[in-house]
Amino acid sequence: MGVTYHRNDFVDDAAATISVRAKAFNYGLGCFGGVRGYWDEKQGELYVFRLADHVERLFESAHILGLVPTVSQDDVARILCELLRRNDAREDHYIRPLFFVDSDELSPTLTDVPTSLIIYCLPLGRYFKSESIDLCVSSWRRVADNAIPARAKPTGAYLNSALARAEAKRNGFDDAVVLTESGEVSEASAAHLFMVRRGELVSPPSTADNLEGITRRSILELAVAAPLNLKVVERRISRTELYVADEVFLSGTAAEVTPVASIDRRRIGTGKVGPATAAIAARFRDVARGGDPAYASWLTPVWGRETKRSVAAS
Ligand code: PMP
């Protein structure tokens, strides 16, 4: 039996429940984050990747929805690390902090409502099990920022992700590329998209109705720096450009760096993992597991005595 943070307490998983009348359940009124902890066997340490950035984005999501948390960003970071310790987390973990409208009254309301916090965690290895994946372009369009804030992570927006993913799965694909209402590439169902073409690493900006991604930001930062030294461009991508890309990969907290073998049954490049994708995946893996001291500020050790200092610095 694991431990979950529920409202103001650490409780057994089974006790972390909400009412069938909860607005959060009935209308998807809330917002969440997705965070990873990487286990380093040699150090006997679990490193939470970019914890302060994840917590900041969670609070930005709440702010966009107009929710007012009663806890601070430091509180959430501290509770999240304590939760991992209480679950004796000594392998790779996924952590889900979630703010929700904590009211059982009937109407879908975001004003004058209490906002509560839940955090749970689970061991998680690879999200996509195969080395590379096959995508289709979804017939569902990505939810527009002016309909449901796409820059944020509102719980209700994930019906859009689930519809795109379900269609892809039913048609024999692993996941979907979702286009914006105006037909540009936005992202995958719950991961960002990168393409390598003519020597450049290209990714659509957040203004293409995609989440402000933390893995995406990390990859952009790592790609331009030594030793990768890649040319990076954030710009619009159209559907057919994907078909003629040399390499395509997805990025995300869950997805990490996942190579794409085909899109709409068109092989991407050679159909094998390309050299830029392989180099970026290796670099990301190394940095996330504490292999480069230059990026130590991205990592918060859960078990060490350093926890407080790293949260403040990251
Ligand atoms: N897009 C969506 C819609 C997502 O849910 C996620 C997962 N958080 C991502 C992209 C990847 O973003 P990040 O790297 O911050 O996890």
List the helices and strands and how they pair.
Elements (H helix, E strand, L loop, with lengths): L2 E4 L2 E4 L10 H5 L2 E3 L2 E6 L4 E5 L1 H15 L7 H14 L6 E9 L13 E9 L9 E9 L16 H13 L4 E5 L5 E4 L3 E6 L2 E4 L10 H11 L6 E4 L4 H5 L3 E6 L3 E8 L2 E2 L7 H14 L10 E3 L5 H7 L1
Parallel strand pairs: 8-9, 8-15, 12-13
Antiparallel strand pairs: 1-2, 1-7, 3-6, 4-5, 4-6, 5-17, 6-7, 9-10, 11-12, 11-14, 14-15, 15-16
Bound molecules: 4'-deoxy-4'-aminopyridoxal-5'-phosphate.
4'-deoxy-4'-aminopyridoxal-5'-phosphate (PMP) binds next to α5 and β14.
Our Rg estimate from Cα atoms comes to 19 Å
Residue runs with pLDDT of under 50 for 5 or more positions: 306-314
Biggest sheet details: 9 strands, mixed
Topology-level CATH name of the largest domain:
D-amino Acid Aminotransferase, Chain A, domain 2
Q: Would you identify the CATH H-level superfamily of the largest domain?
A: D-amino Acid Aminotransferase, subunit A, domain 2
**N/C terminus separation:** 31 Å
The average pLDDT value, as a whole number, equals 95
Bound molecules: 4'-deoxy-4'-aminopyridoxal-5'-phosphate
| Secondary structural class | alpha+beta
Class of the largest domain, according to the CATH hierarchy?
Alpha Beta
- Write the element-wise H/E pattern from the N-terminal end onward: EEHEEEHHEEEHEEEEHEHEEEHEH
The rough form would be described as globular
- What is the tally of beta strands? 17
Q: Percent helix among the residues?
A: 25-40%
β-sheet strand percentage: 25-35%
Counting copies of identical and different chains, the oligomeric state is single chain
